[in-house]
Amino acid sequence: MSGTVIITGAAQGIGAAIAEKLAKNGMNIAINCINEAQVESNGNQLAQKLRGYGVEAECFIADVSDFEQCRIMVDAVKERFGTIDGLVNNAGITRDGLLVRMSEEAYDSVIAVNQKSVYNMMKLVSAIMIKQRSGKIVSLSSVAGVHGNPGQFNYSASKAAIIGMTKSAAKELGSRGINVNAVAPGFIETPMTDKLTEDQKQAILSAVAMKRYGKAEEVANVVAFLMSDEASYVTGQVIEISGGLSM
Q: Using one digit for the tens of pLDDT, what is the confidence trace for 212-229?
């Protein structure tokens, strides 16, 4: 595996795990951070770590819900590395709440970051990949987008949309040598799950066949496969990484 990949929201969590896995596999990493503060708090440290694997890594600032900021970032990555061979749409937020209590602002903000960002980045990066006649795009959906989740009307909507966008883009771009896939993580160990009570954790795990949370590295492993030549004939797919949630 070689080339350059842009990972949105890569400075921490699942995004950082994906960045490390792809760097270990020999890819140069463009780390997207939302602002300079994130570069200073997480991004630079991650970039330094990734360079230890013998690849190039650099932070690029953009609010990926904003098309113009995405355009500037993509142009900068292309100028810096020469090619863009992969895109991982990882950036996402939650603004949970029941539908009847959900504000319009809470709905719009989640759609903008989680869904509009995928449009922004896919549109810009696919134009480069079409000229190269090669490329791989992986977007992070969620089990909430597959099965729905109470209290996450906006989040579920954004993640379900990514599935439709993935399948449509796969059909449009397949003849140009571009693979487009998605992964749908379930309950993954994050600082968010650390805040759950023991009763809440047990209620969640009762629906998981493997009776444990997933790890960010386990998501990264599947993304790395989809970004590799080993997945050259895989496109338009949504792979659930949930330990057998509600089979």
A: 999 999 999 999 999 999
pTM for the model stands at 0.95
What are the tokens at 80? 């810096």
pLDDT of 153: 95
Q: Which of 166, 161, 169 is nearest to 144 (CA)?
A: 161
Q: What is the pLDDT of residue 114?
A: 97
Residue 93: CA count within 13 A, CB half-sphere: 15
Catalytic positions, written as ranges = 155
Alpha-carbon distance 129 to 132, whole Å? 5
Banded model confidence at residue 199, pLDDT cuts 50, 70, 90? confident
Q: Is the pLDDT of residue 2 over 90?
A: no
Cα distance between residue 113 and residue 212, in whole Å: 29
CA distance 39 to 32: 9
Q: Which residue is it, tokens 């970004």?
A: 227
How many CB atoms lie under 10 A from the CB of residue 106? 16
Count of H helices and E strands in the chain?
11, 7
Q: Using alpha carbons, select from 156, 9, 3 the residue that is nearest to residue 84.
A: 3
Amino acid at 144: A
Cα 140 from Cα 239, distance rounded (Å):
10
3-class SS at 25? coil
Residues near 131 by beta carbon (within 8 Å), at least 6 away in sequence: none
Check: CB of residue 3 under 8 Å from CB of residue 85.
yes
Per the CB < 8 A criterion, the answer to whether 244 and 16 are in contact is no
Please say whether the beta carbons of 31 and 57 come within 8 A.
yes
Is the separation of the CB atoms in 246 and 207 below 8 Å? Answer: yes
